[in-house]
Amino acid sequence: EMLETIELSYENITYIDCDTSLSNRTVDQLEDFFAGTLKACSARDIGSMNDQFRSVYEMIVETIMTQSRNDQTLNGTEAAVGMIVRKVAEKHFINIPGTFSFVIAKLMNACNEYEIRISRWNDANRDDVTAAREKAERVYVSESLIVDEICMLAMKNLEEQIPDMIRIIMILTIASCNADLNKNRTFGVIICHGYSTASSIAGAVNSLIGSYVFDSIDMPVMTTMDEIRATLRQKLSRINPHADICIMVDMGSLEKIADDEFTRNRNVAIINNVSTKMALDIGYKIRNGISMDQYFVNAERDYRVEYRVLKGKKKDVILFTSESGLQTAQRMASLFGDSLPVDVPVSLQAVMFESLMEDIEQIQSSSNVLFITGTDNPGIRNVSFIPLEDIVTTTNLDLVSSRLNGYLDEANLRQLIINIRTNFSLMNVLNYLTILNPKPLMDATTIAVDDLQKRRGLELEGRTLVGLYIHICILVERLVTKTGVIREDSATDTFVKNHQDFIKDIRASFRNIEKHYSITIPDPEMKYIYSFINKEEKV
Fold first, then answer.
1. Pick the CATH number of 315-429 from 2.40.420, 3.40.50, 3.30.980, 1.25.40
2. For 24-48, how does the pLDDT look when each residue is reduced to its tens digit (9 = 90+)?
3. What is the value of pTM for the model shown?
4. Pairing, β 244-249 against β 268-271
């Protein structure tokens, strides 16, 4: 009765649109999924990227599975995506999560349903999305090729373009479930005349091996050589630019398909009269990581074929050296390797300082030396040398960038410089290169060098000081461990005779270091310090 007497007011009534509220929440969740994926892709190392994305994918699955509703459009998309994914997974012998097709279908439908807001998000994050996709495609080459195939079939069957963010999620998901997916050092491709000859051989061989070793190019009889070369170029554009290629053809007319363009940075093997038996034999060798030169041992006897191996360019190498010994050079190489933002096919090789002049010819016969870096210049003609102090003071890093720009894009080159500045700080270098406690050693060295400058009336510039600090700290370690000490020669006798004043100043300035570490700086080492400080003078 009381309720019947209440007077209702219709002023200031606010209506809540439940559908709009639900839509906003869905889009917010979708944007959170995408943002989490971009954050995972920005991780410095692959392990961190995989761990972060695994958490994001679990969140995506949990959210989508708990909020899913019966939707005819979604059911149709899921069925089509499921059929495509199963077909591609069987072809490439990969594992796919049971929720994969449903999650991708749900994400595709959500992007279509909330197209305007998702487009705004994509525009605001375009650079990050592009960088994430490029990184995913570079790190996971095989996985991205598989996703390309799924997207191509989706376009053909659903007439729908899969957005970049969903492509990235697909690549990372496949990568997380297939740790050993096609890590072959050689890319195999079968090219045959006919509408399905090559794909049939490749499919049979891949099935028998249980791995996706061979791709295929079917060539109808009227197809021109230029068209086949363009198709091959498109396939090779997505693989590691330094990976070797094994091309198997059915007729001699195709032997000339590989020209200088394909052999610029890699080895290319071409073999004719391909058969299923031959492809199976070569496929197992590719799968087992056997060297290309071993593919054709007894080939003429077994298959009665002709073959040739086109040798590519020499492998690039960076040499690290130190008068302190091979161990110090190896530590430098390790520190530089840790600074690279991504793996590059460049060998980081530690070499003996004393024998480098003799060994360089042999090294250059099989390798292209990008530059040499170390604690002292070995004096190799026609090879750039970057002193370690230049790296520590970031003085000459343009040369490092120019030598590696064939392997690193602009973003990774910038990251390399940032990593070098971090990893090659003076204290970090000393901590890495010496077994002694770097803090007290550096403090004592600074005091000794400052005292020597006062006694000699010098004011050394920063780069020279850094080089001197590094050399003296490593010198103390060599004297403590009795390794790599410079031997006396006739030039040492001349130095001792002509520079008694300098020797006296060294003894006075370095008295505390000699006492603390129970060492005596020998005359040849004093001569080296003198020449380091007075590089324009000849001792």
1. 3.40.50
2. 788 888 999 999 999 999 987 888 8
3. 0.48
4. parallel
